[in-house]
Prior knowledge:
- The complex is a heterodimer.
- In chain A, 74% of the residues lie in helices and 0% in strands.
- Chain A has helices spanning 2-7, 10-25, 35-62, 73-94, 101-117, 126-166, 179-211, 220-241, 248-270.
- In chain B, helix 12 (261-271) links the parallel strand 8 (247-250) and strand 9.
- Helices cover 56% and strands 12% of the residues of chain B.
- Chain B contains 16 helices and 10 strands.
- By secondary structure, chain B is an alpha/beta fold.
- Chain B is elongated and about 110 Å long.
- Classes of the chains: A mainly alpha, B alpha/beta.
- Chains A and B meet through helix 6, helix 7 and helix 9 of A and helix 8 and helix 13 of B.
Amino acid sequence: MLAIFREITVTCFFSSYLIVLVLELLRLVGRVPGRGLAVIAMTSIGLFTHLAYLAFRVTVDQSSGELGLLASWLDWSLLLAFGLTVCFLVFYLRRPDTIVSFFFLPVILGLILLAVAMRDRAPFSRTEATEVWRNAHALAMAVGAGAVLIGFLAGVMYLLQSWRLKRKRAGSTLRLPTLESLQKLNRHCLIVSTVAVGIGVFAGVVMNLNRWGHVGWTEGGVLFSGLLFAWLVAATIVEFAYAPARRGRKVAYLTLASFGFLILTMLAVLGSSHGQVPTS
Amino acid sequence: MTLQMMGCSHHDTAVEFRERFSFSTEQVTSALAAFRQRFPTSELVLLSTCNRVELYAAAVNGGELDRKDVATFIAEQHSLSVEEVLEHTIYRVGSEAVEHLFTVAASLDSMVLGEAQILSQVKQAYELACTAGSAGPLSHSVFQAANRAAKRVQHETSIHRRRVSVPSVAVGEIVPEVFDSLSDKRVVLCGAGEMAEETLRYLHQADARDVCVVNRSPERAEALAHTYRVQTAPWSSLQEQVVRADLLVGTTSAAEPILSSAQFAPLHAQRKGRVMLILDLAVPRDIDPAIGEYSGVYLYQIDDLQDACDKNRREREKEWPKAKKIIAEETQQFLSDLNHRATGPVVRRLREQAEQLKAEELKRLISKLGHDDCDSVISKEIEKSFDRLINKLLHPPLASLRDDAAEGHQRGLLDALRHLFNLGDD
């Protein structure tokens, strides 16, 4: 299996993205049957090879002693390009009629070229890499927790506003934001928290690999962070795939449940040695 | 003649009874004709709006019409029992009825204090009575005075500033609790009458761009849609429109709900949980109240606007005493004028009688003095003296009569004068 990954190079996904850009530029010529499907297929292939390349680098780097994992300009540029490509695919799937590709793809290709240009620069040491990924982990988890918390507050306000309106209390002095804005806030918080917690979990994994060489998956904080992320991904997928879930009280319930998972995660983190320097 | 008012309003009667009690325009016309036939010497003006149904009847004092007669007449019009009508309605007579009409016309009794719609509805009711021939001298004067009083309140207080009618409260107070903006919302307006037009005006001001008018009569819908440059849809597509709507407004005069809970159930499933605000501004109600129980559906009926109206009322409380003072002044002035006008024929006959006596006595005196010998200058002096005598004699009783008239003939001087000087009846 690793042998196949070994064959994957930057050229593979760079070419995929370049083909996607060319396909998208065909819009300027006229209507091309099957163009949309080809864009999705090529982007998916590009993402797969991109991810496989990064995974392979982690595997190789792990066995290289003092060098940090995913701790070089090359890695970070490729990671950023990967994140941008995921965003592009999401935007494209939501609105295939738009030309977001004209904006995203040049930047993605530029980042990959930058990564190639920086490949000779020496990577950071494991200690330095640990610090970088620790900060990324902490920042992303803080943003994710904040988004879950704001989503929870929006959910509570939504349910309260809905209760008020059902009981004909509209027009009273103590007003709340509109149902529409609370619903939008709920959705945005769900998406932001999923992305942020995803980045946080990923950064945590890389940090652990840099620091210990393995991830303690059974440790409370890690386990519940993973569970929170899994829940957020599931909630976001349901929210996107099932129209009623993105409207009305259902989205409020999703964010309330997310808050429940956040509380469990916080209890697990605070109740364990997660994030603390072990005393020898 | 005395004015009497029998009716009900949102203040003390539930919408369920007002629905049964209300009159459509056609029903008003036939009711006025029926009244005219049954009580030929009495007058009637019938005011029927979403929030109130009031009958203003005028009859000769002690004449053919009393409270029970009016209640019986209403009961027959709506197949209600007389007891039911008496139980659910209020009754005002004389100065109280006049003051009530002035208060209603000035929009001080409206659900939304200071709303402009009611004065035009009062005028319409009066004009309809004039057309039907059921209005008379008292109706003419009291409704014209009501218009004057309402105008005075409008001009001399700020109670009508930023006027707020039921549709404007619905669009201005309820909609902003649900939606950020109406510019990207689908609005379906059922009905094309006066209420629909006013609602559409406020929707237009609120930047609603995707509005569709649905009405049984496509011609009226087209006319309204043309004025505000919105779309129309056939009545048969109502259910399809409900599925697409974010805001549904009911303003039809349909006797039965246009959307039942059973009809709505499959439409709700098709809406896939989209939030829907329903403003049912019609009486009788257009929307089955059970629809408000569905998840994501927020139904506001006309009575539910009370909260917003109460707030509105509180904000205008400062102007309330001033407006009420104007109404009290106008009521007093009207009654005073009315009573003064009632003394007119008696005073005129009294003066005519005095003039006749003067002429007879003057003629007799001049013939006794001898016409030829009597200087014309002396004749004029004698005539002036007679005039002064008559004026001095009549001044105290007429002044007392005027004062008594201003107080509503409480001392009965008009009757006394009529009998003392044998002036005959009206």
